[in-house]
Structure formats: structure tokens, C-alpha cells
Write a structure and sequence with these properties.
Order of helices and strands: EEEHEEHEHHHEHEHEEH
Oligomer: single chain
Helix content: 25-40%
CATH topology: Rossmann fold
CATH architecture: 3-Layer(aba) Sandwich
Strand content: 25-35%
CATH superfamily: P-loop containing nucleotide triphosphate hydrolases
Length: about 240
């Protein structure tokens, strides 16, 4: 990207391998602070591996990741994961109520979440206080995602990682989540990295896009690059998805 911006995350020659199988190959690039960056590419491109490295769930085999200009390994793990939250496609919930789930980040720190705070976080994601005592097991897919995102934001997360969070949802629920993420980004200035297989979603929601293939970062830039890629491999990928 030939764009000047402050990086929230910077990858410096990052590679990752498992049993001599190279999953990520020499990734170098920066994620702009306060913006939405989408990660796209075919299955097996290394997108989820890259995402998991951003909050320390995986560590590079070689290279360095910087979070707010500090090496990621200089953060204490629980501090890092409060700073860099993650929401997954499955939106896992603990047994109990929505309030129990929202309280989890605080209880892990030996603190308590007040009912008023819980109501505010629910309202932030478009749910009213009637959901507080609802069993988490009774939530729809879209409602689970909203609660999952609210739970992540309770830590005052400044970077939010999203892994295919709308792929299992119906169209209207997906649109609701897209609108929510745009609101979270604008209201809280949260940096968002979103893996999506939906190129139209990447184009309309993302400020920037990274295209990954075979463990490599192939092309980056403003999300409009998906309309006119410079790299022929990306052109072929986009045409294949849109065919």
C-alpha cells in the first residue's frame, strides 16, 4: 500500500511452519489503525493462521509481529488478549445466561460486570436488556454473534479479529452484523481485521484488503483493488469467485 497511516499491527518477515510444512511465507505488511482490513483468499491460504498470531494464539516460526509498535512477545498474554479480541464463526458460549457470558471477561480478571454495564454493551450491539437473563442456548446465530462481539468489547478491545463471523448466517442476520461492525469501528475507533470468503462484503465493508494465497501476501491496498487487481493471480481468483 502506498498510503501513509499509523499501523495497529505490523508483520515483519513473518513465517510459520508445522512439521516442516510452511503455512505462512515471509509476510510483511501493516494493518492500519482504526480501519477495517479484510483478509480474502482461497481456503488454505493461511488467513486464520495469520489472524491467530495477532493475539498470541500462535507464534511465528521466524519474523516479528508488532502491536502498536511493540513486539508482540513483550506483552503479557492476558494483557494482549484484552487488547486484541477475537470473535469466531462458531461464537462459542458458556452454559448459562447472556449475562453470564458477558460477565466472563471480568470474572476471569477477578472483577464483576454490573448489570448497567451489561445493558449498555447489549444496546451497543443492537440487543435490549430483555436478553440479559435469556439462556445463551436459546439465541439465534445472529444473536450469538452479537453477544460474542459485545463480550469481546467489554475488555475495551482496541483491535478486533473476526473469522468468518457471518458465513453461517442468513442474509438479513449477516447484514445486521455488517452494520454492527461498521458502528463499532466508527464509535470506538476499533481496528478490525475480518476474514471473509464474501468478496462483495470485503469490498463494501473493508477500507483495506489483503489477498492471501498459498501462505503468501499477494496483493494489498484499498478494498477497491478487488474491482481491478494488479496481480494476475488475484484477477483469476476474483473471477473464479464471481463466476
Amino acid at each position: 500500500m502506498n498510503i501513509t497511516y499509523e499501523p495497529a499491527i505490523h508483520f515483519q518477515q513473518v513465517s510459520f511452519s508445522v512439521d516442516k510444512l510452511l503455512i505462512l511465507k515471509n509476510i510483511t505488511g501493516s494493518i492500519p489503525k482504526g480501519k477495517i482490513t479484510t483478509l480474502v483468499g482461497p481456503s488454505g491460504a493461511g488467513k486464520t493462521t495469520l489472524l491467530k498470531m495477532c493475539n498470541g494464539l500462535l507464534s511465528p516460526t521466524t519474523g516479528t509481529i508488532f502491536i502498536d509498535d511493540k513486539p508482540i512477545n513483550s506483552y503479557e498474554p492476558t494483557t494482549l488478549r484484552r487488547h486484541v479480541g477475537i470473535a469466531l464463526q462458531s461464537a462459542p458460549m458458556i452454559a448459562g445466561t447472556v449475562f453470564d457470558n458477558l460477565s466472563l471477561p471480568r470474572s476471569l480478571q477477578g472483577e464483576k460486570l454490573t448489570q448497567q454495564e451489561a445493558i449498555q454493551h447489549l444496546q451497543d450491539v443492537g440487543l435490549d436488556e430483555s436478553f440479559l437473563q435469556r439462556p445463551a442456548s436459546e439465541l439465534s446465530g445472529g444473536q450469538r454473534q452479537k453477544v460474542s462481539i459485545a463480550r469481546t468489547l467489554i475488555n475495551k478491545t482496541s483491535i478486533l479479529l473476526l473469522d468468518e463471523i457471518t458465513s453461517a448466517l442468513d442474509r438479513q442476520s449477516a447484514l445486521d452484523i455488517e452494520a454492527l461492525i461498521l458502528t463499532v469501528n466508527k464509535k470506538y475507533n476499533v481496528t478490525i481485521i475480518w476474514i471473509t470468503h464474501n468478496l462483495q462484503q470485503a469490498l463494501t465493508i473493508g477500507h483495506y484488503t489483503w489477498v492471501m494465497m498459498d501462505g503468501e501476501l499477494i496483493e494489498t491496498g484499498e478494498s477497491s483493488l478487488l474491482n481491478a487487481p494488479k496481480n494476475p493471480r488475484v484477477t483469476e481468483f476474483v473471477q473464479g469467485v464471481n463466476a
